[in-house]
Amino acid sequence: MALKCVAIDDEPLALELIRNYVSRFPVLQLLQTFEDAVSGAEYLRNNPIDLLFVDINMPDITGIDLVRSLVSKPMVIFTTAYKNFAFEGFELEAIDYLLKPIDVKRFGKAIEKAIDYYRYKTATAAESKDESLYVHSEYRMVKINMKDIEYIESMEDYIKIHLQFDKTILTLMPLKKVLEKLPEDKFQRIHRSYIIPVNKIISIQNRKVKLPGIELPISDSYVDFARRWMKM
Fold it and tell me: How far apart are CA 94 and CA 67, in angstroms?
């Protein structure tokens, strides 16, 4: 496996640092670097790649606007000199954000995420043994083991994924969309606000599902599931 990469940054020293770091990872193949965002965008429109390193703050086009303009979007790692980067980048589902000056260990962690996500996207159902869910939280790609999910709660435009040991992850996504990412035989929607893992049901009674540590309501639209479960 070799991930084809491009780096775009108007700072020559920043590009040189990325070249240096990329050379330490045999899995990465750096095809081109650009100090000019317009030229970089034109190259990307005509050449498919796997991973893009792009600076957010550039004089002609921001990295966010550049990525948004692409019809075919690669995995993206944004780089920035500012701690407070634009919220708009969230919708672009970036793999990670790296704060300049970029530390090589932090760079390595971002690459691990990219490799992990690439394998997840390209694996067939037969090849995939690790059942995971990828969501964006705190401007980064987060991997969640499905077996750790206790339940998923809708909060208007966001969802809160409740995990083991009272850990939660908040992500901008409708409940319907996350349900599409989950195995149909292992997760069930029971309410317009809740999705639960079927194997963690303790009991169902009076239109309520008892899970470890919590009871959740079953709405009228999903009572058929409750009847099927009780027959099992």
Answer: 10
